[in-house]
Every structure is written in structure tokens, then in C-alpha cells.
Amino acid sequence: MAAFWPLTSLGIVLGYLVYAWIAFDVSGVFGAADWNRGVLLSRDSFHHKYQVSYSARQDEVSVTVEGDRNTEQDPLPSWVTTDGDSYRVSLGGRHIVTFATGRLDYTAPDGSTYAVRVTQDGVHVNGYRAFLDDDNQYRFVPEEQSGNANPLDMDELVERGILPEGSSFAPTKFEYAPDFYKTMRVTRAQILVQRYFFGWEYFWFGPKSQLHGLSTGALWDLAWSEERIDPALSNAEFIFLEFWRNPDWQHNEMFIALLETLLMALLGTFVAAGVGLPLGFLAAANFNPIFASRMVLRRLFDFLRGIDQIIWSLIFIRAFGLGPLTGSLAIAFTDTGTLGKLFSEAIENIDSKQVEGVRSTGATAIQRYRFGVIPQILPIFVSQTLYYLESNIRSATVIGALGAGGIGLKLVQSMQTQQDWENVMYLIVMTLIVVVSMDIASGWLRRKLINDRG
Fold it and tell me: What is the pLDDT of residues 64-96, one digit of tens each?
């Protein structure tokens, strides 16, 4: 029978995985996933896009970064040219777009051309128009055809070279993305061409800043120049404040939010450690002979840590309103239960001989704790407290998203726009830097307090 146990265990694990796959409808989740949003997220997180757009309502063309009017490019970038009537946009890799009022012409690297026209009855591509049939599917017929007889489907248009593969064509819209870095869209109201570039534009200085576009060397020379930009500030201070108050990236607000998150985690963790240690002594059988009080404290620990930090946060938000205090209290309540239990178990497992040795010198009870118990539990106290501090920085981010403030709230606000994914990635990167820094600092502190003692 013993030989069958490995196969039986494997069968149980596989059966559970199959059950979990069905119960959580993993296939349905993947089937319903919008992968285009995933592409948009990954692309926008590390890139910025230039938009060349024509507005039919205003009858004007603009070139902006991320569609922000404050970033309108004057003069035009080198890859955008105009003869006054039309615009030619080089998207790189021999992808060329030419557009003017009511039309867009796209030339692919293989020489294929696609003419998109905006008419009174919609958008036409290479002489074809789209309509919705009785099955709610798009079909296509020549634009000069009066009826909808003998329609073609999308695959047939692609096979005949009328549409580029991967494009989207509807009665009032044409969209196409040749690759990861370029897109185009034509509607009745707008012609939009987008080109993506790697990097975060205007990260250091805003588009209206006097310092935008200066090289590192030029900034260094300017910082130590005697000729001041602002008479009230040194040039070094002016450069720092221009970066710090960058309206596009809001470095100052991000830093304050990050500091709130860090303080939330620090306050909650240290309150929990400060309260959990004395309660741990009272819950330890070798220091508190009263069974009833020990049981009450242990059930209190179970209650505090049995309710998740997010639930505590929701309770405190309801009681005290929004703010970092609610996050600190949520962390403190949960970790008091966890650390109190860990400390009480560590105290119960100490070597009693060291305590008896201190007692034999005539030491008082406080001295016995100080010299007989604390040195033994100090490694656990320090390591567990610092571990939970690292963990609570991540928890404080999640709690902040519920309304406690900090970097979590900034993340939610950035994600709600569905556009500022580069700002979201910036916040995530800064959070990771803080977590890694805390890990390095706590490791160093553990070594100093534990390994180097004595």
C-alpha cells in the first residue's frame, strides 16, 4: 500500500487543481479578458505618445504629448511636415500617413496604400463602406453600391488588400495599429495619429519650464552660474524647485504621499510592538500564573489578528473618517494580536537557568526581566518587528487605497483616469524602492542589534 501513496497524493493534488480551475471559472476569466487593455497598460507604463490630431469641429491640426494642450509642439517635430494643406507623418519603419480635411492615406512598408475618407454617411476605406447586418455583424460593400447585396466580410477585405490585417472598420470609425508603437483612428469628428516613444516625457521639467530640453551639462553649468534666473533664489534652488513642483509628474505630492504611507506603517508597527511585548509577558505561563487572565489575553490576540487589516481599516474609516490615522490603527490592531502571540510563545520558551542565575544575585523582578529575559527574546523581538514593518509598508499601500491616504490613494486616483499609466508605474517603482530600501536597512539593523551584541 505504501507504494501507492505517491500516486494517490498526486491524484488528489491534480483533482483539486481541476476542481479549482472549474470552481473559479479560470477559462471564462481568460476568455473574457480584454487583452488590448493589457497591451495599452504595458505600452503606456514605459512610453509616452505624441498625438497628431485633426478636429473637424475646430478645423485645426495639433501635435501634443499625451493629448495635453499645454504640450502643443511649436515648431513641429522633425517627423511631422506640412505644406499648408495636408500633413505628412512618418511613423518610423517606412510607415507613412498623410492626412487633410476628411481624408487619411496610409502607406505600409510593402508599398500597400489605404485611403480612408470621411463622408456624410460615415467612414469609407479604399472605396468600401461598412454596415451592420441582421446578425449584428459588420459587412462591407462598395461605396457606390446603393443597396447591401453581396456583402463581404472582414477576412475577404483583408485577402483582397482593401483593409490591412488587424484593423477595425465600422460605419463611422476606422482604427489600425501597425505595431506596438503606432496607431491611427479616423472618425467623423477626428483624425488621430499616435506615435509612441520609450521613456517618460517631461519627467524632470514641465513643458512650460525654462529648463525643459536642457542637457545635464547645461543644467550643471547653470546651477553654478553667477547670473541668476530668479533673483530671489540661487540657480541650484531654482532647478530643484522646477523639478520638485513639476505639474505633470507632481513629485512633491508623490513624496508626501509616500512619506504618509511610510509613517502609517512605522506608527502602526511600533505601537503594535510596544503594546504586544508587555501583553506577551502577561500571556506567558511562566510569568503569569493566573490562568484566567492568560486565556483572556490569548483570546484577545486571536480576535485582533483574526480580523484582517482591511476590515479594521473600513471600521476605523467609518468611525474616524479618512486619513492616515485609520491606517495606523488598522495595522496596530492586527499586529498587536500577531506580535503579542509570537512574543508570549518566545517568552515561554526561554532558558529558565539564565533567569535563575540573575535571581541568585538578589535582582528584583524588573532586573530579572531586563537581564534574564530580554536578551533571550531580543533577536525574535527585533527580527519580527522589522519583518512586520517591511510587510506593513505594502499593507499601508492597500489600506491607503481604501481612503486612508498615502501612496495607495494616489495610485487609485491615477488608475481611475485610464490614461496616466506612466504615473501609475512611477508610483509603483517608488513604492518598490522604499520596500527594498527598508529591507536593506532592516537587515543591517538586525545584524547590528543581534550579531554584534556584546
Answer: 887 777 777 878 888 888 888 888 999 888 899
Structure pTM?
0.76
Is cis: bond before 77, omega within 30 of 0? no
Instruction: Report the number of secondary-structure helices (H) and strands (E) in the chain.
Output: 15, 14
> Per-residue confidence at 2, pLDDT binned at 50, 70, 90?
low
Kindly give, in sequence order, each residue whose CB lies less than 8 Å from that of residue 309, ignoring residues fewer than 6 positions away.
330, 331, 333, 334, 395, 398, 399
The mean per-residue pLDDT over the stretch 390-415 comes to 83
Q: Is the pLDDT of residue 269 over 70?
A: yes
Query: Are β-strands 182-187 and 138-142 bridged in parallel, bridged antiparallel, or unpaired?
Result: unpaired
CATH numbers and ranges of domains, the chain = 49-198 (no CATH), 251-451 (1.10.3720.10)
Compute the distance between CA of residue 273 and CA of residue 156 in angstroms, rounded to an integer: 69
| Sign of the alpha-carbon torsion through 235, 237, 238, 240 | positive
Distance, CA of 197 to CA of 177 (rounded, Å):
15
Amino acid identity of residue 365, one-letter, is A
Neighbour count for residue 420 (Cβ, 10 Å): 18
Q: What distances in angstroms separate CA 234 from CA 226, 237, 247, 335, one per listed residue?
A: 9, 5, 21, 47
Supply the mean pLDDT for the chain. 84
Whether pLDDT at 271 is above 90: yes
Distance between CA atoms of 406 and 431, rounded to whole angstroms? 11
Bridge-based pairing state of the strands 103-107 and 182-187:
unpaired
